[in-house]
Design a protein that fits this description.
With 442 residues, the chain is α/β, with parallel strands linked by helices. The chain folds into two domains: 158 residues, Beta Barrel (Lyase, Ornithine Decarboxylase, Chain A, domain 1), CATH 2.40.37.10; 259 residues, Alpha-Beta Barrel (TIM Barrel). It has twelve helices and 23 strands. Helix 2 runs parallel beside helix 9 and helix 5 packs across helix 6. 46% of the residues are buried. The model has no long low-confidence stretch (mean pLDDT 95). The site of pyridoxal-5'-phosphate has 15 residues, from helix 10.
Length: 442
């Protein structure tokens, strides 16, 4: 059980003090349910760890993990900054009423229109990813006579995943300036001589679902080697170091990530120590967690439907959602755990494989889940779906995207409406080519 999850006297799973069977009846299924108290707890854990150090810091929520107006408003209330990676995420943040100064704009292929939109809004920071973008931004700032703060995204030569990290030297990645490449030095020189682009510092992101801090620490050590060289050669000292996100969470019992506050302490200590060695002021430390703030706080509720027993092989139990609301199992073979939320007090002693309802054999949510005897109509809760669930949701097979509710202290609030069939055809237009005869437009 995570966060505020509990089992009530009816044997139903509750989240945020709300009975999940009531949520399903009131809002329908599939349904994403977010435990607001758990999101707040995650944020506080990180904040308290930062507060132990005499450093300037910032937590920016990586909103690709779950983006919606209400989520952005919660992030703002909690005093976090926001990381967006597209004009659409930025637009959502503006609609949510966020101060653009608290927003960072990421992305490896920002369009001129997106950069202009960001400048129109008075964006806080642009994380410049490559020299193509740098030139475009340079021209835009000059044409508009508008200044902007920038960080340069670097591929730091370290790639981390779960317990493993690899030092790759020249990293093969579509993101960022290569750390060993001349283009980064040229970019620093350009920014230094530019009157409107304020180069504030550097950004890197070494991966996702990272369980240990060794990868973060190694990246910092590597980067300080380069920071020394750039200081000596170019006179550039970063005021801000943004070490990205990627802090791992516990999807299943097999996952054992270190706590969020431990990550923060190890990152800050390493940056302090490396700065002291170079006798440079300790830069502001920025982090960009997505999954770690919202992943475990999200649960998806499904209604059980068809059951198929393949003798001697397995039992399939289909639910009313699947790869349309949770793409991760099909995309990355990600593992999840589930519970029969309407029989949460009954011993789970049967093995069934939870299938989605899409026309793909690969649309399996969980292979070999452990549930009690489950009948059609029972409520299934799949845990830990708060990150990259709704944000990767899609309309494959023309399934409407589910609703999202926030729960806290016994209250539930709908924060994203369920799509309707009418929504599915909202942007479709009639076929009319045949009415105008055989056209020759060449
Ligand atoms: C630049 C950057 N920052 C932050 C994140 C958030 O990662 P996570 O959700 O694993 O914390 C990502 C994820 O892809 C990213 O690319």
């Amino acid at each position: 059980m995570r966060g505020t999850q509990s089992i009530n006297h009816l044997g139903h799973l509750t989240i945020g003090g709300v009975d999940t069977t009531w949520l399903a009846q009131s809002f329908g299924t599939p349904l994403y349910v977010y435990d607001v108290a758990l999101m707040k707890q995650n944020v506080n854990l990180m904040k308290q760890a930062f507060e132990e150090f005499p450093v300037q810091w910032q937590i920016a929520y990586a909103s690709k993990a779950f983006s919606s107006v209400a989520m952005y408003q919660l992030v703002d209330q909690l005093g976090l900054a926001l990381d967006v990676v597209s004009g659409g995420e930025l637009y959502t943040a503006i609609q949510a009423g966020l101060d653009p100064k608290h927003i960072h704009f990421h992305g490896n292929n920002k369009s001129e229109q997106e950069l202009s939109f960001a400048l129109d809004q008075g964006i806080g920071t642009i994380i410049v990813d490559n020299d193509f973008e740098l030139d475009m931004l340079s021209e835009l700032t000059v044409a508009r006579q508008q200044s902007v703060d920038v960080l340069f995204r670097i591929t730091p030569g370290v790639e981390a995943h779960t317990h493993e990290y690899i030092t790759t030297g020249q990293e093969d990645s579509k993101f960022g300036f290569n750390v060993n490449d001349q283009t980064i030095e040229n970019a620093v020189r350009l920014a230094q001589s530019h009157s409107l682009m304020n180069l504030k510092g550097l950004h890197w992101h070494i991966g996702s679902q990272i369980f240990e801090s060794m990868g973060f620490v190694t990246a910092i050590k590597n980067m300080f080697g380069h920071i020394k060289a750039w200081r000596d050669r170019l006179g550039f000292t970063p005021e801000i170091l943004n070490v990205g996100g990627g802090f791992g969470i516990q999807y299943t019992k097999e996952d054992d990530p270190i706590p969020l506050d431990t990550h923060i302490r190890e990152i800050v200590q390493q940056i302090q120590q490396a700065s002291e060695q170079l006798k440079m002021p300790v830069p502001e430390v920025w982090v960009e967690p997505g999954r770690a703030l919202v992943g475990e706080a999200g649960t998806t509720l499904y209604t059980a439907g068809a059951k198929k027993h393949v003798p001697g092989i397995r039992t399939y139990l289909s639910v009313d959602g699947g790869m349309t609301d949770n793409l991760r199992p099909a995309l990355y073979q990600s593992k999840y755990e589930a519970m029969n939320a309407s029989k949460a007090d009954i011993k789970a002693d049967q093995t069934v494989s939870l299938a989605g309802k899409c026309c793909e054999s690969g649309d399996m949510l969980i292979w070999d889940a452990c549930l009690p005897e489950t009948l059609p109509g029972d409520l299934i809760a799949v845990f830990c779906t708060g990150a990259y669930g709704y944000s990767m949701a899609n309309n494959y097979n023309r399934l409407p995207r589910p609703a999202v509710v926030f729960v806290e202290n016994g209250d539930a609030q709908l924060v994203v409406r369920r799509e309707t069939y009418a929504d599915l055809v909202r942007h479709d237009l009639d076929y009319t080519l045949s009415l105008s005869g055989v056209g020759n437009k060449s």
